[in-house]
TrEMBL record:
It comes from Sanguibacter antarcticus. CDD domains: GlcN6P_deaminase (cd01399). It catalyses: alpha-D-glucosamine 6-phosphate + H2O = beta-D-fructose 6-phosphate + NH4(+). The record marks S145, R152, K154, T155 as: Part of the allosteric site. The active site is at D66, D135, H137, E142. One of its GO terms (biological process) is N-acetylglucosamine catabolic process. Residues 8-224 form the Glucosamine/galactosamine-6-phosphate isomerase domain. This is Glucosamine-6-phosphate deaminase.
Length: 240
């Protein structure tokens, strides 16, 4: 595991964007794994800046980590819309190449296996961007999630619903259920790039990097991966 510490979150975005730019320039059909939340936003801002300076994403396919269950199509806080707004609508990626778990499906129980099959059919994820929850969750794999899990429906903890309430009118509007890539699914990506900034993440980061491998810190599963880059600001690194 490579841990990179910088004083400003914007610098972390540039480090991640360098890896993504290399992938995009050297692969014919690169597959990029996208995450939501505030942590990846400096990366997305940097990718948009590089696109405006001439970098094309026309040959890139993306797969998102997770999605709320039950939000109507087009809901502004559905992760499909967040990804579109924050990144893909500002690049030259084709709409049909932007994928996410289908949380609005009539068959949400079957949607997980279909999503894993779609990732596999695309040849797997080359580079997966990740954040980390304040309780150590990865994607929406809450503490106690199986370390070999596949994409499936999960129930959010109250803490995660409260953490994410800032995006909704009230915590009552935050869905209880989500479709999330499993920890086993995430581990199949060829390179994991995880970003964390701020003191609120320091404890979870220390447990992920230096704690024991445990389903009670789902992010600790990255210790099993042969190619992980962890990008931290000073505050997120303060308990290492
Ligand atoms: C959500 C997402 C995670 C993300 C986490 C942290 O729960 N499902 O993928 O890592 O939020 O979000 P933030 O980066 O805003 O702290």
């Amino acid at each position: 595991m490579e841990v990179v510490i910088r004083s400003a979150a914007a610098e972390l975005g540039a480090v991640a964007a360098d890896s993504i730019e290399h992938l995009v320039r050297t692969h014919d059909a690169p597959v990029l794994g996208l995450a939501t939340g505030s942590s990846p936003l400096p990366v997305y801002a940097e990718l948009v800046r590089r696109h405006r300076a001439g970098l094309t994403f026309a040959h890139v396919r993306t797969f998102s980590l997770d999605e709320y269950v039950g939000l109507p199509l087009g809901h502004p806080e559905s992760y499909r819309e967040v990804v579109r707004r924050e990144l893909t609508a500002q690049l030259d990626i084709l709409d049909e190449n932007v994928h996410g778990p289908d949380g609005a499906s009539d068959d949400v129980a079957g949607a997980g296996a279909r999503y894993d099959a779609a990732i596999e059919a695309a040849g797997g994820v080359d580079l997966q961007i990740l954040g980390i929850g304040s309780d150590g969750h990865l994607a929406f794999n809450e503490p106690g999630s199986s370390l070999v899990s596949r994409t499936r429906v999960k129930t959010l903890t109250q803490q995660t619903r409260e953490d994410n309430a800032r995006f909704f009118d009230s915590v009552d509007d935050v869905p209880h259920h989500v479709l999330t890539q499993g920890l086993g699914t995430v581990l199949e990506a060829r390179h994991l790039v995880l970003l964390a900034a701020g003191e609120a993440k320091a404890e979870a980061v220390a447990a992920m990097v230096e704690g024991p491998l445990s389903s009670f810190c789902p992010a600790s599963v990255v210790q099993l991966h042969p190619h992980v880059t962890v990008l931290l600001d000073d505050a997120a690194a303060s308990r290492l």
